[in-house]
Design goal:
Hypothetical protein af1432, alpha+beta, 45% helix, Beta Polymerase, domain 2, Ubiquitin-like (UB roll), 6 domains, 21 strands, 719 residues, six-stranded mixed beta sheet, 26 helices
């Protein structure tokens, strides 16, 4: 169990005695307010803030960060208030603690939205101080270390959130050791069978690899000495999750992943780095296309190093990284390392420049749809990059597979909105052209141009997607307003009402206020989308028009007697083919133009690309229990009897197999396509969970109805 003295031993080398006194005061306060509280493990709650603080001490953060680690849960989980923290520790500490504190008082309608709002709070708080993210990452790391004490269901949800959001964030901030530990611990929870397989393989070959690494290190050191280079050689191994990703990407067995090891040369200065590179290449033959110069062109998170892959002395591929001691420090601790290089207290309080990918998240923080917000974060964080040039020679980092529109929006929103074409390296290219590192781009603009929905087919950056969607929404709103006003004008004219008459306008304004619509423009837009009924409008003129409308509070049961659409009346409802919702799925409605309301799963990617003003709440009527057809794809070991095991399990769960097809994808692996009949989403979850527990099944995936052709499937990991 961690002791406070352990923390003091870590911070003593770089904090002053006055700083240590403040840290000690924070520890005493945290112990007092958390007294009597327990964690899921049964340990005193104080253990958690101490472990978080210990992690922060490992990356040598400043006094304020260390104190925040000790206090980060006090506002959320104790009787302590912001006023208390401010009074005792000052405003700066209070701001940091508040930034890390989760949102507990917001009324959030779903788990997914809570996740989005919590992450949005993190990003917003970062606008004030980058240290908020660093404390949050330390908090998440310790929670992942103790994840075994959570209920199984919560473990998987927590691990999935961590590997999707927090691990990539640690990567973009350059704190690779936190990223790798988060990934491996989440991998063990989400894919226990695959984790065990890789772990056994690794342990069985560890002695052999260590002997091999020792020989390579000795050879490298000898060659460096020949060149009179004062450099240190060390070894690193790929983490288990990285090995798994390579297995999936290249369809390899664990023991076939060869580049599990890499060697680092730590040199004195930049000149020595290039000299060491020359020594390596003069000794062993480099592999073309595998050299990367991150010293001349650093990554956005500040990472610098030379990377090369050579054919080693035993005929194996050997990866070598070459960097200075300072570069190595930044490679280990990322953004956090910059605190070490601040000279005085004033400088230490300045914001550290954020990586471009993290800055871009601020562009998305105002998105109203939590699903869109989370999607944007994933797009920005989970990616590789290309490096291109502006006409003035400025270097820009963009996500891999970016097009010229992504580049235009990276420069300026107006440039993106008015983009009509582009020249790459002097030649005109289409919007679909994928940028390559080293490309020089010139954007051609047209002042009359407006963004097109088709652009969303080509762009990959979250900034471009966000700006295009916002522009399209504005365009649609303008069109909807014009159409709605024209139609309403004709309808009112039939009753002798002129829409330009001041008295009519006044009545419409009153009606808009009653419907919580901001203005007449919003009334016209809602009318064009059938969110407001003509009978309701006519009733405000006291014309005596009869209506069969139900009250706003009454939900309308659709003709299928299965879905309730709130606030709508006399509309057609149809199930969307793009995501194939089944009874029990979380659903949402989309108001189409002339085809009623299409019902989608709330996680449907198509919904993320539509005008959010046309979305309407929808839910299943729990009086009904309708069977549905759904499709599954399994990846499994190609063993005799696997089809029988799968069939028996589905029969055990009282489901019928409507279609089954198996396909060999490698010498030892197969994929199985299934169409089954299920009672509801819960029933489907029980079946997929059961299939996932079969030892030879290593992936189970629910498929879209529209993609039910077996030969169209591409392998995709669920993690």
């Amino acid at each position: 169990m961690i002791r406070f003295n352990d923390i003091l031993e870590k911070v003593n080398p770089y904090l002053t005695s006055e700083d240590i006194a403040e840290v000690t005061k924070a520890y005493a306060y945290s112990a007092k307010v958390h007294a009597g509280q327990k964690r899921y493990s049964g340990e005193p709650y104080l253990i958690h803030p101490m472990e978080v603080t210990s992690i922060l001490a490992d990356i040598k953060l400043d006094k304020e960060s260390i104190i925040t680690g000790l206090l980060h849960d006090t506002i959320e989980d104790t009787l302590a208030t912001k006023a208390d923290i401010t009074k005792i520790f000052g405003e700066e500490i209070c701001t940091l603690v508040d930034g890390v504190t989760k949102i507990s008082k917001l009324k959030i309608s779903s788990t997914f939205e809570k996740q989005a709002e919590d992450f949005r709070k993190l990003i917003l708080a970062t606008g004030k101080d980058i240290r908020v993210i660093l404390v949050k990452l330390a908090d998440r790391l310790h929670n992942i270390r103790t994840i075994s004490y959570l209920p199984e269901e919560r473990r998987k949800i927590f691990a999935k959130e961590t590997v999707d959001l927090y691990a990539p964030l640690a990567d973009r901030l350059g704190i690779y050791w936190i990223r790798t530990e988060l990934e491996d611990r989440c991998f063990e929870v989400l894919k226990p069978n695959e984790y065990d397989e890789i772990s056994k393989m690794f342990n069985s070959k560890k002695d052999e690899w260590e002997k091999y690494s020792s020989e390579i290190k000795s050879l490298l050191q000898t060659e460096l000495n020949k060149f009179n280079l004062d450099a240190l050689v060390n070894t690193r191994f790929k983490n288990f999750y990285s090995i798994y990703k390579k297995m999936i990407k290249k369809n390899l067995d664990p023991d076939k992943v060869l580049d599990i090891k890499a060697f680092r040369i730590i040199s004195k200065d930049i000149a020595s780095c290039y000299a060491a590179l020359g020594a390596v290449h003069s000794t062993w033959k480099p592999i073309p296309g595998r050299f990367k110069d991150y010293i001349a062109l650093p990554k956005s998170n500040g990472y610098q190093s030379l990377h090369t892959v050579v054919i080693g002395p035993f005929g194996d591929k050997v990866e070598v990284q070459i960097r200075t001691e300072e570069m190595h420090e930044i490679a280990e601790y990322g953004v956090a390392a910059h605190w070490k290089y601040k000279i005085d207290s004033k400088e230490r309080k300045k914001l550290i420049d954020l990586p471009e990918s993290v800055k871009n998240i601020f562009e998305t923080q105002t998105l109203s749809d939590p699903r869109e917000f989370i999607d944007a974060i994933k797009d920005e964080l989970i990616t590789d990059f290309v490096y291109v040039f502006t006409p003035k020679g400025e270097l820009k980092e963009l996500p891999i597979d970016s097009c010229v529109i992504d580049f235009a929006y990276a420069i300026h929103t107006d440039l993106g909105n008015k983009c009509s074409g582009a020249r790459v390296n002097g030649a005109i290219v289409p919007f679909s052209y994928k940028l390559k590192s080293g490309d020089a781009i010139e954007i051609i603009i047209n002042k009359n141009r407006e963004p097109s929905k088709d652009w969303l087919k080509y762009v990959v950056s979250s900034k471009a997607k966000s700006k295009i969607r916002n522009s399209i929404k504005n365009i649609i709103s303008k069109d909807s307003e014009k159409i709605g006003k024209e139609i309403l004008s004709k309808k009112l004219a039939k009753y002798g009402l002129n829409i330009t008459d001041p008295s009519v306008i006044e009545k419409l304004k009153v009606f808009s206020a009653e419907k919580n619509l901001k203005n007449l423009e919003n009334l016209y837009i809602n009318y064009s989308l059938s969110k407001v009924n003509i009978i309701e409008i006519l009733n405000c003129f006291n014309l005596g028009v009869k209506t069969n409308l139900e009250s706003k509070e009454t939900n309308y049961l659709n003709p299928n007697n299965a879905i309730i659409v709130g606030g709508a009346n006399n509309v057609m409802v149809r199930m969307a083919n793009c995501c194939g919702p089944i009874y029990g799925d979380e659903i949402i409605g989309f108001i189409t133009l002339g085809r009623g309301i299409s019902i989608h799963r709330i996680s449907c990617k198509q919904i993320l690309q539509v005008d959010s003003t046309r979305l309407v709440e929808a839910r299943w009527d729990d009086k009904y229990n309708l069977k549905s057809t759904t499709s599954l794809r399994l990846y499994c070991n190609d063993k005799t009897g696997i089809l029988s095991e799968v069939s028996n399990l589905i029969a055990k769960h009282e489901s019928n197999i409507l279609k089954i097809n198996a396909k060999k994808i490698s010498s030892s692996k197969s994929s199985i396509y299934l169409e089954i009949l299920v009672n509801n989403a819960k029933h489907l979850y029980e079946i997929t969970r059961g299939l996932d527990s079969i030892p030879d099944v290593y992936s189970v995936e629910r498929l879209l109805i529209s993609n039910s052709e077996f030969n169209l499937f591409e392998k995709n990991s669920r993690i």
